[in-house]
Design a protein that fits this description.
With about 290 residues, this protein is α/β, with parallel strands linked by helices. It has helices at about 10-20, 35-45, 60-65, 85-90, 110-115, 135-140, 155-160, 175-180, 220-230, 240-250, 255-260, 275-290; strands spanning about 30, 50-55, 70-75, 95-100, 120-125, 150-155, 180-190, 195, 205-210. A seven-stranded mixed beta sheet has the order 4-3-2-5-6-9-7, with helices on both faces.
Length: about 290
């Protein structure tokens, strides 16, 4: 019988066998609780006809749980020292391929097309390094990959920001960016004690159900996100001050006043009080009035 990788004893045995030492610069924290891994796998909701892209397999703890459940796993690992360890720990599973690549630079769309063309659905999963969580998620979302959902372990604070609703202190440009492409929900909070080494922060499992159609109609996506980012540039400032100082300039204040009036938005409101629908209305009004903002 194959022993699970994600137990304190087996993890220690694997690390000692290969003389592995953790690199802080790569944000490496390995899960040592099978129950948590099972819950992540269940949250992904994949069947034996489905496929998985994994980001950062580490020593293969989560990879193993998906290898038991799905048709094929394609895992991206940046740390070359872990490749031989993964080949060892995952040797019982013929349905796992390891790519020694930084997922931020990898052609994930090509891997999906070439390696997972025969599966029914695909999910992206992973225990993401906290220092690159946002760049990884935004790359995967912006590419509009043919995947059903993304289920990842990330810093709880970031998960709270991503899933936040208008009016809350966590709500910001990241909330809107992620929720534009997906429906976000926090599945569970994960204590520090189930990692080795223990991180300094709490973690959470985030599930993103990928949208087929954007929840709002915008005339120009790039401009929409420019307006959103500018509106949150300084959280204590009003929407009027932020957009005037960070996007339009004082010479266009009449244009801004007109756009806010047409969108029925009080210029004294702050960005965190505006819904995505209101940001869409405002950005469309502004876009109609100017197309020369870079």
């Amino acid at each position: 019988m194959i022993k699970d990788i994600a137990t304190p004893g087996r993890t220690k045995e694997i690390l000692e066998k290969h003389g592995f030492s953790f690199k802080k610069s790569l944000g490496q924290n390995f899960l040592i609780d099978v129950n948590i891994l099972n819950q992540i796998a269940e949250a992904a909701g994949m069947s034996e006809q489905d496929g998985v892209i994994e980001v950062g397999p580490g020593i293969g703890a989560l990879t193993e749980q998906f290898a038991k459940r799905v048709k094929q796993v394609e895992a991206f690992e940046i740390d070359g020292r872990l490749i031989s360890i993964l080949e060892d720990t995952l040797s019982p599973y013929s349905n796992v391929s390891i790519h020694h690549e930084d997922v931020l630079k990898a052609d994930v769309k090509k891997v999906l097309k070439e390696k997972l063309q025969s599966v029914k659905e695909t999910a992206i999963v992973g225990n993401l390094p906290y220092y690159v969580t946002t760049p990884i998620l935004m790359k995967l979302l912006e590419q509009r990959l043919p995947v059903t959902r993304i289920v990842v372990m990330i810093q709880k604070e970031v998960a709270d920001r991503i899933a936040a609703k208008p009016g809350s202190k966590e709500y910001g440009s990241l909330s809107i960016a992620v929720q534009y492409y997906s429906k976000a929900a926090t599945v569970m909070t994960v204590p520090k004690t189930v990692f080795v080494p223990r991180p300094n922060v709490e973690s959470a499992v985030l599930r993103l159900e990928i949208r087929d159609i954007a929840p709002v109609d915008v005339k120009d996506e790039q401009f929409f996100f420019q307006v959103v980012r500018a509106s949150f540039a300084q959280r204590r400032k009003t929407i009027w001050n932020n957009l005037q100082h960070n996007l339009l300039g004082k010479e266009r204040k009449n244009l801004l006043a007109d756009a806010l009036e047409q969108a029925d938005i009080d210029p004294k409101r702050r960005g965190e009080t505006l819904s995505m629908e209101e940001f869409a209305l405002l950005s469309n009004q502004l876009y109609e009035r100017t197309t020369d903002i870079s």
